[in-house]
Backbone:
């Protein structure tokens, strides 16, 4: 579905990505693990068209979309849940969600959008209760639900999640990842960028590890969980033998 | 049967993407973790960052067996030893041994890959697999052992030797699949015939050959004598062991597991990459190995690659049966000659043994090729005309198949004296003389 081929990107003179290649197949959940400043968000921004790559190519459903503006990529079916939620705080939860259907609104019946809304409420029952409340007054976890729900309103073929666990309490992180599991069972294709490797690897099928703008590992979840470098760097495990 | 459809039947475009991703991450890791590669890349001013497409791999330096020897024992490991759960090594007959390490993931992948090879060879969970490779530092036995267990077959870890016992167990335990070198399978067949046993009465139906080249006539002979179907598989100890490539029942080349290894074919003299289909030396880059990754490792094995899909459904490239080693290559009058080619010709000729010696010389500036061949006891005592017939038949075949004129000399059985257990297959007398003149 998504194919990223040797992408390089710069912020001014600083190279943020060095020939990064990844792919996501339909129905898969893929995670991109890495520390702060490794280039995770940069890569997502390139996929959603917010940032143009200096080099390399981007393919979506067999179509070369390199350099396409974000609105065209969004219409193609790539929906991003931004880092730090970035919801419209003064607007109500309902308005936030309906804004997510912006690209569909004019072409489709209002009823269908409302139907979509129902399925979002099904996924996050608490949002139905808070529909009229200003989004800015919600808790962090609820705001994250609004952000995910808003993106889902556009019915994306590929969902990009940027650090969904950021700044959330462990219990809430668990809830969010449970939702991701549900989305997976509905055959949504997802790319999750995470620092919380443990949580991400619980739901992902495959993953990549990115360090200083380079991919250093690729593998199925089990391979990554068994990899000692991943264990040391991201899972907080270190085995020292007696003889050492 | 196909063990892992997702990868073995992957669209070529998807495979290229997967290879690119894994190649980039492998190069990033070796550059960071293996000082040998860091030094070498830095010395050549070539960085992993420069890999933009698979084609760019050509620009990277080759790794030779000698490099591995110089890093003896653990110099080229990409992870600390405590992450390594298995160590294998080469025999070290011709120099310092080469040592390879495996992490838990490496072992997991290894089993998956040998399971693919075994499945392609027809083995299922119903089979009783007798493994006659040596269990020990050598990779062959353990590699295929774990793959066979993963499939769910019943594995008999016989190891080498004790032919009488091997045959007895094969009969009593109802072995259905034999894992061996082709020459050992032939030996088993001979032993059974000598003991008056009929291989037809065995449960044996499959054989998987590895460890040495298996020329087509040899395979046919074994298949006919043991009433089985035999497939060939290919491995390189330093790269992983068995599991690199294996034949399917179409027997039209060995499917190379390209999601774990990138194959290239180079000209062993100029070291340039050759186009697909051309014969040359196989060079392998590992894509998933954690403990002991290798970049462009020269296998010294001569083969060619075919990227056309196989009727079996696999899309993996097929490598031709290994024809010989680039170390063994003899150039006679500008023609490449491999001892194994001579061997396969001899196997097709009645009355001779595949024990031979190739003598290359230069007389008045012209290369000459002589082949000494041992004949069977019964033929040797026969009249001279029959012997002449045999030698001219071999000469004709060498001319037709290899394309050079050779003089064939038939010698008495057991007359070619082995040196350290092996008959020296090639004697090249040209070298000293060239220097003198």
Residues:
């Amino acid at each position: 579905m998504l194919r990223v081929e040797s992408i390089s990107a710069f912020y001014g003179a600083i190279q943020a990505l060095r020939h990064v290649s990844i792919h996501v197949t339909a129905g898969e959940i893929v995670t991109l693990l890495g520390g702060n400043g490794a280039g995770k968000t940069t890569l997502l921004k390139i996929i959603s068209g917010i940032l143009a790559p200096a080099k390399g190519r981007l393919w979506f459903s067999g179509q070369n979309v390199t350099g396409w503006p974000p609105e065209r990529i969004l219409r193609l079916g790539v929906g991003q849940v931004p880092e730090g939620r970035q919801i419209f705080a003064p607007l109500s939860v309902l308005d936030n969600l309906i804004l997510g259907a912006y690209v569909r609104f004019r072409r489709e019946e209002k009823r269908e959008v409302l139907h979509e809304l129902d399925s979002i409420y099904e996924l996050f029952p608490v949002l139905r209760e808070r529909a009229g409340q200003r989004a800015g007054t919600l808790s962090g976890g609820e705001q994250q639900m609004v952000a995910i729900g808003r993106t889902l309103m556009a019915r994306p073929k590929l969902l990009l999640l940027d650090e969904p666990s950021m700044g959330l309490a462990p219990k809430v992180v668990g809830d969010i990842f449970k939702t991701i599991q549900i989305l997976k069972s509905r055959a949504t294709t997802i790319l999750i960028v995470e620092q919380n490797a443990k949580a991400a690897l619980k739901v992902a099928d495959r993953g990549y590890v990115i360090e200083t703008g380079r991919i250093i590992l690729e593998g199925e979840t089990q391979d990554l969980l068994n990899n000692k470098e991943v264990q040391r760097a991201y899972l907080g495990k270190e085995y020292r033998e007696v003889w050492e | 049967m196909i063990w892992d459809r997702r990868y073995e039947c992957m669209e070529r475009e998807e495979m290229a993407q997967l290879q690119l991703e894994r190649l980039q991450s492998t190069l990033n890791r070796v550059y960071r973790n293996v000082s040998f590669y860091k030094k070498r890349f830095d010395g050549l001013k070539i960085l992993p960052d420069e890999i933009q497409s698979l084609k760019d791999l050509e620009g990277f330096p080759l790794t030779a067996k000698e490099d591995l020897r110089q890093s003896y024992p653990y110099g080229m490991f990409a992870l600390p030893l405590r992450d390594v759960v298995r160590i294998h090594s080469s025999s070290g007959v011709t120099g310092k041994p080469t040592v390879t390490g495996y992490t838990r993931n490496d072992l997991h992948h290894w089993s998956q890959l040998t399971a693919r090879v075994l499945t392609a060879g027809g083995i299922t969970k119903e089979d009783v697999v007798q493994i006659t490779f040596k269990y020990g530092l050598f990779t062959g036995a353990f590699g295929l052992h774990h793959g066979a267990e993963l499939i769910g077959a019943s594995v008999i870890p016989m190891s080498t030797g004790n032919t009488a016992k091997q045959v007895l167990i094969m009969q009593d335990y109802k072995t259905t699949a034999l894992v061996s070198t082709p020459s050992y399978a032939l030996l088993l067949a001979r032993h059974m015939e000598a003991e008056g046993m009929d291989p037809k009465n065995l449960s044996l139906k499959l054989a998987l050959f590895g460890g040495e080249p298996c020329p087509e006539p040899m395979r046919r002979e074994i298949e006919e004598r043991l009433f089985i179907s035999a497939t060939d598989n290919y491995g390189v100890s330093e790269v992983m062991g068995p599991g690199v490539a294996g034949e399917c029942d179409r027997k039209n080349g060995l499917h190379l597991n390209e999601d774990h290894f990138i194959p290239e074919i180079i000209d062993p003299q100029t070291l340039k990459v050759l186009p697909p289909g051309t014969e040359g030396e196989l060079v392998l880059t590992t894509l998933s190995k954690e403990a002991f990754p290798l970049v462009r490792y020269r296998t010294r094995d001569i083969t060619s690659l075919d990227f056309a899909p196989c009727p079996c459904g696999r899309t993996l490239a097929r490598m031709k049966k290994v024809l010989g080693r680039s170390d063994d290559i003899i150039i006679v009058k500008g023609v490449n000659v491999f001892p194994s080619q001579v061997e396969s010709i001899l196997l097709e000729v009645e009355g001779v043994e595949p024990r031979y010696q190739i003598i290359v010389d230069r007389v008045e500036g012209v290369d000459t090729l002589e082949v000494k061949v041992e004949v069977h006891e019964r033929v040797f005592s026969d009249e001279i005309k029959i012997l002449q017939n045999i030698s001219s038949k071999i000469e004709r075949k060498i001319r037709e198949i290899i394309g050079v004129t050779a003089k064939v000399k038939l010698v008495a059985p057991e007359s070619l004296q082995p040196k350290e257990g092996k008959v020296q297959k090639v004697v090249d007398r040209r070298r000293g003389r060239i220097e003198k003149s």
